[in-house]
Amino acid sequence: MSLVTVARPKDVDLAVPPLTPGQPSGLTLRQIADGYSQWVTRDWARACNVEYRAGPSGPSVSLIAEGGTVWTTGDPRWPVMLATKDGISIKEFPSEAEVKAARWAFSAGPWLVRDGKTADIAAEIKRCGFSGLMENSLRERAAIGIREDGAIVHYANMSATLLQVQAAMLSLGCRDAIGLDGGGSVGVIDPSGKVLIGYTSRQVCCALVFRRLVDEHPAEVQPPQPQPKGGEKMIVCIDPGHGGPDPGAVSADGIQEKKVNLSVAKRVAEYLRRADVQVVLTRDTDKELVLGNDDAAELRARAQVANNAKADFFLSIHCNAASTSDAEGFEVYHYPGSTKGAMLATKIADAYAIASGLKRRKVATANFQVLRDTAMPAVLIELGFLTNKADCALLKEPAFLDKIALGIAFGILNMRA
Ligand SMILES: [Zn+2]
Is 96 among the residues known to form the active site? Predict the structure, then answer.
């Protein structure tokens, strides 16, 4: 179960109950929200827990500042969400003056998305010193992010890994996003005190209050299913099309398909490995498998890599080309008559459409040799057109390649269900 809350920056407050700086505080989310209703306004829509540690057990380990008062200073390594009159941002190492001048500020983490790129969560956990936080464990999670248009996105999920939450924040359009406290700290209530998701019994020291919401029904995010406990590891074979003397399609400004295919394949492999999937690449350098220009032998060799690895799924990655420059968007192909192939193609296309924002041309069958010669459900994706100016500009951007690779990985992981 997940819940998405979106609001404009001016409609987001940080409700801080009376605290003694550095001392434990002991109010539940409900009590903080009731205080906000009493002292500020009854007119609000949702309140969310933020905090890492408060209550009778000890003072907060998160920076908390509001209206010029710094209640706790927190851990300087953690990213800080700051609200000023100009909007809301997430920063590392803001100055004390910046924090004091802010409408409110709090620190949390780890970084999930930064500047539109996925953060290395494991490295972030280490850097911030979040002891006990595991990126791959399934538990209650919450995150907060900022969209390109400045809107604030809160996301809560009762059973997800940090990698899944990262994917969710990206697919919700966040340019920057950080994790909030998980487990028993996850809680969202409405003004009547109704628990919309999570828990509210924990004593915490502040809450985010969303006065007015936008996008009441944003696209539902479906995080991939977790690996069944004790089950066999999923094996995925990824085939970056072309290589070596065969560049594949080439754009007007010289971008070679073989290079884009390999960059995306490596990124997909990385995301799948982080989700505990075994990945086999048909090539991980700029080469061909069979020397000479026998295309049939080359493609047969690629399918053979997947068959030898006894892969559960096969994905060949390509970029498209057309004789006219106005053809744009992506296509996904599967072998005729393969039900699982069709399912894989649809799941990848659905996730890719959200991640890339590119035009969905078609999901269709094709009698391609790599689809025919592989013994498992197999899919070929055409990422976009190198002959189209807009597609090609995106396919040059490392941040875009990160985003679409995560989308593709997301689609494959959804086959675990
Ligand atoms: Zn190709």
Answer: no
Distance (Å) from CA 379 to ligand 1 centroid: 13
Integer-rounded Cα Rg, in Å, for the chain is: 24
Q: How close is the Cα of 37 to the center of ligand 1, in Å?
A: 59
Which one of the listed residues 66, 232, 382, 397 is annotated catalytic?
382
Distance CA 81, CA 156 (A): 17
Q: What is the pLDDT of residues 395-417, one digit of tens each?
A: 999 888 988 998 899 899 888 85
Fill in the amino acid letter for 351.
A
Would you place residue 296 in the very low, low, confident or very high pLDDT band (cuts 50, 70, 90)?
very high
Structure confidence at residue 74 as a pLDDT band (50, 70, 90): confident
Distance, CA 245 to ligand 1 centroid (Å)?
13
Query: What does DSSP say about strands 330-334 and 360-365: parallel, antiparallel, or unpaired?
Result: parallel
pTM: 0.63
pLDDT, position 354: 83
Question: Tell me, what amino acid is at 21?
Answer: P
Fold of 235-416: Aminopeptidase (3.40.630)
Domain layout of the chain by residue ranges = 2-210, 235-416
Please provide the average confidence, as pLDDT, over all residues in the chain: 89
Cα of 320 to ligand 1 centre, how many Å? 6
What is the residue-wise DSSP string for 316-372? EEEEE--SSTT--SEEEEE-TT-HHHHHHHHHHHHHHHHHH---EEEEEE---HHHH
